[in-house]
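Team,

Forwarding the record for the chain on the shared tracking sheet. I've put the sequence and predicted structure together so nobody has to dig through attachments.
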Amino acid sequence: MTTIPIIRHTAPLSSRRREVILSAVLVLFGLVVALACGEIGLRLISLFQKDSDQSLALRRSWFDDRSFRRSAWSFIPHGKSEAYVGVPVFINNLGLRGSDTTAAKPPGVFRIIGVGDSITFGYGVRYEDTFLQVLERNLKASASKGMRYEVLNAGIPATGLEYYTNFVETKAPPLQPDLIVMCMALNDIDPELAPEPTEVAARPGVFRELNGFALMHSDLYSAVYVQSKSLLYRFDVLHLEDNDGFGFLAIEPPSPAQTKAREAVGRYLKRISDFTRAHNIRFRVVLFPVEPQLSRQALQMYARQLHLYFSDDVMSGQPQGWIKQFGADDGFQVLDLLPAMRQADHGQLFLRNRSITFDPVHPSSAGHRLAGDEITRFLNETGAIASTEPTESVKRRNP
């Protein structure tokens, strides 16, 4: 029997390559078209939501990128962002957040400068809702005839005691403040306190540059970025304590690093206190807590939601005790906001945003309102404010 061989015709190798390349091109083309449609769709949505905090186009933010600054410790005068963390931000002629004003203090004005980091700046909060603006409105409402008040916001995100000292010693004197209110967060207790270079020297890596470019120019990337980042925190891939601006050393168990940080903080506070005293500037310190300090429920929530685990010792308010002791030793008054926030806490005093679902550091508008009223009461009670009494509304909220 004759066997007839079966001949299988196979396509030439070059033809297979063409098919693979064609398929890859079609897939890539489809992906590009889908991304383009998504980008166009989000931009069209943003046109109808131009005045809304939920506008996808307005979520991207370049404002806090340090390449936007002239130095690590300043903003460009008249810089702006339509939606920095969901809210508009405008920088005035002096390089401070807020409306334009004169460098020289106008006659008859009692000028207050609030110095601090992103909390003072008003991270995620409209300018008119920041605690410094609440303070200014309270003072104006209770001012005696002929008395005028002006509160300047010298808060800059991602800074600390190094910046506060630099501002008080170099930038504040020409502004002729009557009072400086230094607003401290617990992440200011840092073992690495050292002078920061005036000019930004380090160039970001390629990935960071690409990421920043995409965030600045793509609505779709911004939307995906914040949602993905939130999920990564929830699934314990990213860790909040590794994020810039979220340092928790102050509420961790005692350690050599904590001791070193306390000593550095004490030196900076004394330096600022001595400078303001020598220049006849009134000086007060305000301490902001972190949300896990407010209640055991908040402590458990952060362990469950963001994998931040602390012992019940954080409830003691010990870090605030250190700062108050520094004040007692050196003769300056300190306001600890922990008791007032703990009493008013209903889970609404700290920011909730799309990037980090639960923000343990930055107060919400409600938190800023409470802080502004408490600071008004504190400044009046400690004689920091000239010729005024707290308003009845503030008295009722702060018995």
